[in-house]
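The pair is set out directly below:
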Amino acid sequence: MKKIMLSLLAVCCAVSLAFAGGAQDANTVAIGAVFPLSGSVAFYGTESRDGILLAIDEINAAGGLLGKKLALIAEDDEGNAEKSVNAFTKLTTRDKVPYVLGSSTSGATQAMTALAQQNKVILISPSATNTAVTRTGDYIFRACFIDPFQGIVGADFAYDTLRSRRGAILYDAGADYNTGLADSFRRQFLARGGAVVADEAYQSGDVDFNAQVTRIRAASPDVVYLPNYYNDVALQANQLRQQGITCALVGGDGWDGLIDNAGDEVLNGFWSAGFASDTTDPKGQAFVKAFNAKFNKTASQFAALGYDTMMLVADGVKAAGTFDAVAVKTAMAKIDGAYVTGNIRFDENRDPIKGAAILEIVRKSGKLANAYKTTVNPK
């Protein structure tokens, strides 16, 4: 046992030194990352990290960036805002990284934005969708669409494609992501002529939604909007179906990972995503193939967004001709090009102008799968 422990310690030290050495090597540039690599939303963080690692592999294999190799230093914030700040401080003060990729959730990302702006460190999140994230300043970017767009997409899809006219909403009132999507869906669905017949809230950590579901059932909706994270949605879908609610369920990108944590109760479910793994786009297909070859798993939207996040920074560096953060953030703001998750250009708030895929949860070969349904583009 002692020999095993010593061997494990040696491996850990070797990995740590490899990253530290990469950060200090004159021929290597360290890229910082802060993601939930453990905890309830670890799926989001680990997928984005893996997408970034694939991007770095490809960049290094092609000769690096401005003649230098890249090395990733990834820190775990567990989806916690305080821990994201600690990780950001460590990366920027000890490791001296010029760019930080992350975090996955809006709250953890927003906790870092003021520090990033103050210290002139580029911060770009793959998946923080809350509108306020990029409003702190011009060093803050994101690779994903924003919450209002997702809510609008969900409402338009429900109204136009599902022909829904009576909507119910069940959302976490204590989380910015959930309330942002709920607010946007509510406004758009009403504006289109639909009626919100049940509007139910709950608090983070709740697991029993039967009281809310009973009221939703009494209102007889023809669609239920669940703008929540997959772990909550799995429970909610189960309880909705148990009470006999069979209508379509619609949600946002927080559903990614749902099919691995739920059963047939999530069928007739649709969600807005930043990427579809069964894409027919050649660039997207090449990414899916490379990701599967490296990690032996299907690429999720979070993996694709992580990959694009790294490539956006790399393209900014190439355009600027320097690693200097001031020049790079100016160059990034002018990007307009094709990426794995679609064509990306930034608006004045450094939010990408891009479309959203709608995925349907179906059964394929006896297993739940996400199947591409349609794309909704910004108007």
